[in-house]
Amino acid sequence: MTELRQRAVREDAPPEDKESESEAKIDGETASDSESRADPAPPPASVDDTPEVLNRALSNLSSRWKNWWVRGILTLAMIAFFFIIIYLGPMVLMMIVMCVQIKCFHEIITIGYNVYHSYDLPWFRTLSWYFLLCVNYFFYGETVTDYFFTLVQREEPLRILSKYHRFISFTLYLTGFCMFVLSLVKKHYRLQFYMFGWTHVTLLIVVTQSHLVIHNLFEGMIWFIVPISCVICNDIMAYMFGFFFGRTPLIKLSPKKTWEGFIGGFFATVVFGLLLSYVMSGYRCFVCPVEYNNDTNSFTVDCEPSDLFRLQEYNIPGVIQSVVSWKTVRMYPFQIHSIALSTFASLIGPFGGFFASGFKRAFKIKDFANTIPGHGGIMDRFDCQYLMATFVNVYIASFIRGPNPSKLVQQFLTLRPDQQLHIFNTLKSHLTDKGILTPALEDE
Amino acid sequence: MLELRHRGGCPSPGGAGTPPPREGEAAGGDHETESTSDKETDIDDRYGDLDARGDSDVPEMPPSSDRTPEILKKALSGLSSRWKNWWIRGILTLTMISLFFLIIYMGSFMLMLLVLGIQVKCFHEIITIGYRVYHSYDLPWFRTLSWYFLLCVNYFFYGETVADYFATFVQREEQLQFLIRYHRFISFALYLAGFCMFVLSLVKKHYRLQFYMFAWTHVTLLITVTQSHLVIQNLFEGMIWFLVPISSVICNDITAYLFGFFFGRTPLIKLSPKKTWEGFIGGFFSTVIFGFIAAYMLSKYQYFVCPVEYRSDVNSFVTECEPSELFRLQSYSLPPFLKAVLRRETVSLYPFQIHSIALSTFASLIGPFGGFFASGFKRAFKIKDFANTIPGHGGIMDRFDCQYLMATFVHVYITSFIRGPNPSKVLQQLLVLQPEQQLNIYKTLKTHLIEKGILQPTLKM
Questions:
Q1: H or E stretch covering B275
Q2: B233 Cβ contact list (under 8 Å, min separation 6)
Q3: Closest Cα in chain A to B184
Q4: Mean pLDDT, rounded, for B287-295
Q5: Quick check: B413 and A191 CB within 8 A?
Q6: Which of A176, B159, B191, B211 is the most exposed place for a label (fewest CB within 10 A)?
Q7: How far apart, in Å, are the Cα atoms of B239 and each of A393, B89, B105, B170, B302?
Q8: What is the DSSP letter of A289?
Q9: What average pLDDT does range B213-229 have in this prediction?
Q10: What is the C-alpha R_g of chain B?
Q11: pLDDT tens column, B262-280
């Protein structure tokens, strides 16, 4: 069983890794490293990716502070990058989301390959990427059809592609499935099934999330920015509170997390969310749904802000009135929603982080990859975001907006005439009952 | 890695040798013989940490208890072993087919329950295999969580269906209204609760095992629950959309076997050594003809052809309607070469029969890939059958593996080529909009209908 022992080796980081034991890696990955047996060859994985410039600048400081600085600088770099992308607009944001998705997929699949030593099955790498392509084609096709309806109707090939979209996607997927079945090699059945399952679960996790993020984005950039910022803020705040006040451990899975950090992070995130939504609700470019303008052939964010984004007076409940000595306060209704979003980000978001920690411990890896110096892979940064996108999407669909009117009209137009007539009559009687439709209007 | 070595060390019941031959093994069925799977034992176990040090740890299915009823055994005690197996399989096949007819007779609601029952059983079978492979019976939390996830996903899917098809029923009840309106949120909250329970249940030494079972559960859900949900949607479209595809797959199984038995010579695929090209092609042609004839016979009856609707007055399902054009005889002019053969100018067919050719083609050409997938799965995990539910045939999953992709194909086919969106769903969504939006849509629709001449402008209702 020499192979098994050798394999276990590869995933462990050597102790002299720049992510030293005392490091501020919140998940406390190091605890799991010590429990593994001494393994022969240290993995080549943790190469020091820090740029030379930084290395030289920080060469005087001790190892611990150097790591702190590296992480800090990279954090600021990522946040600045985030702002730049927001400035560049929705199209660039979409592309960034897509790239992040592909990178996450790549990282997780690579872990799978490492765990199962399946680099020698070249078919499988092709198939994994092919499935990623299929699923993305399916999801993006659905989105494009909804939001670019007029553009699609104009171009003949696009119209056919969108009309038979599901059939085409299914055929593509089927081809991949049949290729998988034909590629089953006698001695490697179990391995191939494992990788097949691994690929599908990864797709389920990564692609659905990114698709929902794009949906949220189209609803208005604020629905994209506020949730993501809340999760990031929660990460940072929980770490800070834990660093300064932390005492009681939160969960065995991540020994470095503490209850003080958790609760402090919760309150800080709610406050941050309130402030951020107040600031952003003032600007149309964040608040309006992203629309595709046929004439200018680009994305526009121009509209009359909905009720959610108009200042309203709220009466302060008695208990706070005595403290704040105001009778009413002017807020955007969106800020109330932001409290719900921040609460989710602080209370449930960390479970995504615990899930990723458990995953890393289960497969004995320190980080998903080495893309970002000081932070690990892209997946490490996005693990808490995992459930946030789904929550925001479900929240919007349930509480904020109803169905998309233009989509409904589009669906209506494809029905049969007798069905159309039936719906029309039902709608008419409904509107008349509600008094929305008066005979005067009827005669227009 | 100590704990992993421990886990790998459990002795297996039967050792790595050939398990005692099963009753149905010698029969010329689709089962893979034991001998081929044994050869992979020492090589396949290199991969996968949890797959055991030696193949001895992967428990071969314990000698399958013979579930054949006593009465059959006595009746057939005279015959040789091979013919006895043949008879058992044959009898069980006929039993299953008659059960199928009985349920069809009993109506669509019973069919729905049957589909649900099959789904739960398939899920159970696959999960049990997972437990055996990973020796994870000692993680009781996980069994609870798997069933909980099954419940959540079913709740989500059936909630979506119910909202669509029972719109009138739902409008009446206040609590149901609430559940429907916030359905997605409630389903998501339920799923989240399961997810958090999973995270909290991670036990220090069993991380990898738990993650494997988590993934196994999700892939199984993806496979079984989506398929069964799509089957139900096809059923609501009209029972013929449920019957013809399923019968085509069954027919393909049986005729491919018969053709292979009598004429089989060239092997089809290494994965299933008993399948032959002759069986495959013969099965294809007979299935197309069978589908053609079955479609012709079923298209006459409203009971099969009409969409299933729920009538609130009668509080039951009815299938009564004016058959759509698909199910009305039309004359087709024959292409010249067929004219010469049949000596007729035209032939009257139901348009649905043309569609049935597409369905049968899929059932014969792509359906078997589902079977190969299941064969590969069984070889990978060294099991002979998914379970022992049906004597002579194995588990429920064994019977339904070829159906796997059929349901999805039929559903995609229907939505792409046959019908448009569901009118009641469109209406329901319309009624939820804001009044101004409704008014705008009303005006747009009115203009559109008048343009198309569907609505007369002078008609004041």
A1: strand B272-276
A2: B161, B411
A3: A394
A4: 92
A5: no
A6: B159
A7: 35, 28, 11, 23, 10
A8: P
A9: 88
A10: 26
A11: 888 888 888 888 888 989 9
Pairwise CB contact (< 8 Å): A423 & B430: yes
Residues of B in contact with A436 (CB under 8 A): 435, 438-439
Question: By CB neighbour count within 10 A (0-12 exposed, 13-18 middle, 19+ buried), where does A172 fall?
Answer: middle
**Nearest one of A305, A307, A245, A233 to A273, comparing CA atoms:** A233
Per-residue tokens: B351:
């348009």
- Looking at the partner chain, which of A197, A201, A437 has a beta carbon nearest the beta carbon of B442? A437
For B423, the closest chain A residue by CA position comes to A419
A358 touching chain B per CB within 8 A:
yes
Find, among B160, B167, B68, B50, the residue nearest to B424 by Cα: B167
Torsion-angle region of A48 (φ positive above 0: left; ψ -120 to 50: alpha; else: beta): beta
Q: Which residues of B touch A255 (CB under 8 A)?
A: none
3-state secondary structure string, A342-359?
Answer: HHHHHHCHHHHHHHHHHH
Cβ contact (<8 Å) for B437 and A186? Answer: no
What CA–CA distance (Å, rounded) separates B146 from B198? 10
Band (A130; pLDDT cuts 50, 70, 90): very high
* Interface-testing mutation among A412, A413, A428, with chain B (most B C-beta atoms within 10 A): A412
Q: Which residues of A touch B373 (CB under 8 A)?
A: 177, 180-181
Angle between helices A333-347 and A349-362 (to 10 degrees): 20
pLDDT number for residue B359: 93
Site from A2, A3, A4 to mutate, B interface, most B CB atoms within 10 angstroms: A4
Cα angle for residues B23, B66, B56 (degrees, 5° grid): 80
Query: What residues does each domain of chain A span?
Result: 90-120+221-402
Give, in order, the Cα–Cα distances in Å from B95 to each of A43, B100, B371.
Answer: 59, 9, 22
Q: What's the pLDDT at A340?
A: 92
Q: Which of residues 209-238 of B touch A (CB under 8 A)?
A: 210-211, 215-216, 218-219, 222
Is residue B61 pLDDT above 50, yes or no? no
ipTM surpassing 0.85: no
pLDDT in tens, A400-424: 766 666 667 767 776 767 777 777 8
Cross-chain Cβ contact A402/B429 below 8 Å: yes
User: Would an 8 Å CB–CB cutoff place A5 in contact with chain B?
Assistant: yes
Residue A275 — pLDDT band, cuts 50, 70, 90? very high
Threshold 0.90, pTM exceeds: no
Chain A residue whose CA is closest to B48:
A116
- Angle subtended by helix axes B207-237 and B239-263, to nearest 10: 110
How close, in Å, is residue B333 to chain A by CA atoms? 27
Task: State the count of interchain CB pairs (< 8 A) between A and B.
Answer: 210
First to last CA, chain B: 79
Q: CA dist A50 to A44, A82, A278, Å?
A: 16, 20, 37
Question: Residue A274: what are its φ and ψ, rounded to 5°?
Answer: -60, -45
Question: Would you put residue A89 in left (φ > 0), alpha (ψ -120 to 50) or beta?
Answer: left
* CA-based R_g, chain A, Å: 26
* C-alpha distance from B359 to closest chain A C-alpha (Å): 14
Q: Which residue has the higher pLDDT, B450 or A40?
A: B450
- A 180-209 → B contacts, CB under 8 A: 180-182, 184, 186-194, 197-198, 200-201, 204
Q: Label residue A161 exposed, middle or buried (CB < 10 Å: 0-12, 13-18, 19+).
A: middle
Closest chain A residue to B416 measured between Cα atoms? A164
